[in-house]
Amino acid sequence: MLDKQSPIPMYVQIEDYLKNQILQGDFVIGEAIPSERELTDTFEVSRMTVRQSITNLVNEGLLYREKGRGTYVATPKIEQPLSGLTSFTEDMLSRGMKPSNKLISFEKMIPEIDIMHELQLAKDEEVFVVKRIRYADDKPMAIERSYLPVKLVPNLELNDIEGSLYSFIEKDKRLIISHASQRMEAVLVKREDAEFLQIFMPSAVLLIERISYLTNDVPIEIVRSTYRADRYKFISEIRR
Ligand code: 16G
Q: Which residue puts its alpha carbon closest to atom 7 of ligand 1?
């Protein structure tokens, strides 16, 4: 199975072998792969070599470890296009997944200066700050902190944010969300967010800031979202 004469290191060959097995469906999602000991015997390599291959596949999001139990095949990451201005609810429904939310906090306040500038607000203008955990099929995917100018959605209430915020803005308020700008960066998850997202510390997460505008270029929301990097892959089509 392995070529011991090859310049390709053994751990890379094992990694490729296991990866092929996973991708061609030899294991189902959630199924345990053979133990380190079994793989060590099969490939006649050291345990360290096997461990290195598995760690790389865990870091790639193809496998996950459960302490004291074993290593399992992970659910494939969600491939999220970066081109459409869609809502979380729309994204999940289009994949046949069930979206849901958990509200962490809902406040009305004078925002910090950066939010105030980005939302083009005057000094004394308030925002609603909504913090929600977003779930797909009851699994936590992201945490969103949304800042919305009170003057644009003055009567925003708890039950409006239980479902889709975009649906409230567009159907109830009859405002048209037309375009947005987004920034994305990799950061280490904060302790509080790690608990909400049910991931270990330290884990990398993807932080996205979206500023969405109405047709007249008035900003309607700033959303700072923390996405699980083990569950998301962002895709963009580019042309030359
Ligand atoms: C997405 C948007 C967020 C928007 C939310 C509305 C990104 C990075 N963020 O998560 O800006 O507020 O959808 O979703 O894509 P909802 O209508 O389901 O509440």
A: 210
